[in-house]
Amino acid sequence: MRRIPVVIFLVLLAAGCAAPPPKPVWVPAEGTFNAKKSGFSLVLPAGWTRVNQEERLMITRDGTSLQFIGVALYKIGVPLKHTKKIFEKEMLPQELAGILIDDLSSAGNIASVEVLENVPARLGDVEGFRVVCRIRFKDGMNRKCAFYGAMRGDQVYDVYFNAAARHYFDRDLGIFEEVARSFRFLPPS
Amino acid sequence: MNAFALPNGAIYLHAGILARMENEAQLAALLGHEGTHAVNRHAVKGHRELLNKSTLYAAVTLGGWGGSLFTVASVTGYRRDLEREADAEGYRRMVAAGYDPSEAPKLFRILERWIEETGVKDPYFFSTHPKVRERIESFESLIGASGGKGVDNRDLFLVMTRNIVRETSQLDLRAGRYESALRGADKYISIPGGEAKGHFLRGEAFRQRNGTGDGEKAVEEYLRSISADASYPEPYRALGLIHYKKSEKVEAREYLEKYLMLNPGASDRSYVERYIRATP
Prior knowledge:
The complex is a heterodimer. Chain A is α+β, with helices and mostly antiparallel strands. Chain A has three helices and eleven strands. In chain A, the strands form two sheets. An eight-stranded antiparallel sheet of chain A has the order 1-4-5-6-10-9-8-7, sandwiched between helices. In chain A, strands 2-3-11 form a three-stranded antiparallel sheet. The longest helix of chain A is centred in the first third of the chain and has 16 residues, at 3-18. Chain B is built from 15 helices and two strands. The longest helix of chain B is centred in the middle third of the chain and has 21 residues, at 154-174. The termini of chain B are far apart.
């Protein structure tokens, strides 16, 4: 009878040794990131870590509560998360930017969004926009965000940077600009 | 959208509820209702009731949210008899202050229509359809019992709340709630001095909704806005962009240049200058 627990222990030990090591959630970010299915690539900075997923890009240096850079894709004709508005094919870059700002403003946990800058800009080789906002959350937290966007095909691409308004936004804005400049659209796969 | 009284007597009204009221009598009905909750210490009564249910109280206190129940009830609503008491006492105060009692159920009908239109599922007392319906029935029975007439101070109320009406309509527009935005714009137009901005808001709601015939309606509204106030720059930009997208370069240029002339510090100047350069 005593042998049974020993056997179970040995079986579990063997199973544990045989299982592959768990995939790390965060990995070093430096280098070129290719999201082939999503159709873009960009160069990530040294010293940052990224979420270890093939198509989803989210990087941070000190933790996402302090700063993060990411890429979001929106399908034309599909309502956004917070506003019921949709992107349409014939929209101008200014209108695309307006919808993303409206979506941000309509989030339930945000008290106010102040647009500090909203200008034409290129994303990759496509005419788009660049927006800088100050965001005040209902719990009193202040953040700033910057994002570039453009429409290609039936998707709107949004390369964004979001950080604590104090210290972190100004410190890391230059890094975000480099990341955004490195953005390239990949040929459709 | 909600209104509530905290146990310390502070009464909170969401801007959205204030923007949808039509007159001061409706505000009086709401303040009378909420004021009664505070004066008659309904939060304390609810808390004592919970104390008596000792097992539940121990559970929630150990769970760490016992204290917050004081305020949770005030936001989500009280027992049905306490709500009825707040209706009756609030109604009595409203009538005693000289307000038209027939306005009380009208306010709740407005809220009921808003809940039905938006399909909102907020846990707030005044965003919950059955509870708003109960208020309508409760106030209708009170009116039936007492009758009476009074003032509503509509004109002054609308002037005092005009900015809230406009901002709420803009918030609805940002959230893509076009019907609510249009209703807010209509109300804003009805307030003296609100025509130009109100018609522009209607134009924006139609343009962004982009349903069948909305493009034409948007143009009509922008032109009405210009007729009401030729120095208001926003409709010129909107018309300029409509013509620009249709490649009607002469009209586009004319409207966009007018927009920049009226609003030299426009935040979207760099976009507009780019459009103008593209319309030689």
